[in-house]
Amino acid sequence: MRDALDRRIITELQHNARAATSEIAARLGVARSTVHERIARMERDGTITGYSVVLGQNPGDETVQILMLLEIRQQDTRKVLDRLTHFPEIKICLSINGEFDLFLTAEAPRIEDLDLLIDELVEIPGVLRTKTFVVFGRKFDRRYSETAARILQQSAAIA
Questions:
Q1: CA separation for the pair 120, 130 (Å, rounded)
Q2: Hey, where are the domains in the chain?
Q3: d(CA 46, CA 40)
Q4: How far apart are CA 49 and CA 134, in angstroms?
Q5: What does the buried/exposed string (b/e) look like for 8-21 if buried means 16 or more CB atoms within 10 Å of the residue's CB?
Q6: How far is the C-alpha of 153 from the C-alpha of 85, rounded, in Å?
Q7: 59-134 — its CATH code?
């Protein structure tokens, strides 16, 4: 069970996953060994499942993004999900309620690549119908904006 200290450690790691345990301990006012032991416990119990890098996007590396709804024959859900994991263009797959069963986001360098992806997805046995939307622009994204800003600040400080 996570307590307030675990949540504070997680917050620190979300801001900088590369921070030394001694830095985190100093900011939180606890012993370094306490932070180290708690991180190790949260890794073991699955609270922390990994660490990642947030890449900046180069203007030349722009991608086209689509949002896609899929209606799935219920008995084929696991097979469809297994097939979807083999498409690197699919970035997010969410189970939803309503007329459709899955919500996907996908990205590729060109709209033609996404057109081919859609053609392949509708051919998967168990996919009954789809509805696709092309993203014209991202107005804001709260998931990554704070992390990206911090990374830019750190990059500027190193340069």
A1: 12
A2: 4-44, 59-134
A3: 10
A4: 32
A5: bbbebbeeeeeeeb
A6: 34
A7: 3.30.70.920
Strand order in the sheet with 127-134: 90-95, 102-108, 64-72, 127-134
**pTM, 2 dp:** 0.59
SS3 state at 66: strand
Task: For 65-113, write each residue's pLDDT tens digit.
Answer: 999 999 999 999 999 999 999 998 999 999 999 999 999 999 988 899 9
**Residues 100, 116 contacting (CB under 8 angstroms):** no
DSSP character string of 85-142: TT-TTEEEEEE--SS-SEEEEEEESSHHHHHHHHHHHHTSTTEEEEEEEE----S--T
Distances (CA, A) of 101 to 66, 98, 127, 132: 17, 7, 10, 14
CATH fold for domain 4-44: Arc Repressor Mutant, subunit A (1.10.10)
Structure tokens at 12: 């620190």
The 10s digit of each residue's pLDDT in 23-82 is 999 999 999 999 999 999 999 998 888 887 766 655 556 789 999 999 999 999 999 999
